Amino acid sequence: MTPAGHEPRPRVVLVGPMGAGKTTVAALLAQRWGATVRDTDSDIVTAQGREISDIFVDDGEAAFRALEREAVARALAEHDGVLSLGGGAVLDAGTRELLAEHTVVFLQVGLGDAVKRVGLGTSRPLLMGNVRARVKALLDERTPVYASVATHTVDTDGRTPDEVADAIEALLQGVDA
Ligand SMILES: Nc1ncnc2c1ncn2[C@@H]1O[C@H](COP(=O)(O)OP(=O)(O)OP(=O)(O)O)[C@@H](O)[C@H]1O
Ligand SMILES: O=C(O)C1=C[C@@H](O)[C@@H](O)[C@H](O)C1
Ligand SMILES: [Mg+2]
């Protein structure tokens, strides 16, 4: 519940690369806390009535990023539960500014675990081609960006989603989120 007189704000926002487990861990935390969960990728898919891979193919990445910018701003303004962002949401400078007011946990994942988790599916358009090389390039480019918006960082390598959720709870103890 949002306290009377306060704007809604997510208790925690999860950022990090594809395969870090943002969507999975957000759902677990929300369940533990009796809170609602929201995911900006899902918001976009629902609003558009098509998959992210189709938006990339039909309209291009720039169009997806514009939808994502709006989806993140709306979720940050409306949602008072747990919020997970798409892996590339932090590339937008305006989004990074909005995140500065929030509790943001960066879920870190190394190359090996990320590749294992994302597999070879076609639902992540930026990983088409050589998955391992694409994941490595994205991790190299974006790790500093995730770190720059994070108030907390959790390493997910070799941890189950439940263990990651435990680590987040331990980190946030005492944080008025
Ligand atoms: N800690 C973990 N250990 C093992 N597998 C995991 C872990 N976290 C998530 N997974 C699995 O990895 C896959 C990707 O997880 P998830 O979709 O939550 O990642 P994400 O960070 O939301 O990625 P995206 O940026 O593409 O939305 C899923 O199949 C999920 O079950
Ligand atoms: O890291 C990225 O750029 C992406 C991550 C996914 O969550 C989706 O938002 C989309 O596949 C792009
Ligand atoms: Mg996700």
From the 3D structure, determine the CATH topology.
Answer: Rossmann fold
Q: State mean pLDDT (0 to 100 scale).
A: 92
Pattern of helices and strands: EHEHHHEHEHHEH
Principal-axis shape equals globular
Judged by helices, strands and strand pairing, the structural class is alpha/beta
Task: Strand order, main sheet: write it out.
Answer: 2-3-1-4-5
Give a short account of the largest sheet.
5 strands, parallel
CATH superfamily: P-loop containing nucleotide triphosphate hydrolases
User: What percent of the residues sit in helical stretches (DSSP H or I)?
Assistant: 40-55%
Task: Tell me the count of domains.
Answer: 1
- Alpha plus pi helix count: 8
Give the percentage of residues in beta strands: 5-15%
CATH architecture descriptor name: 3-Layer(aba) Sandwich
Overall number of strands: 5
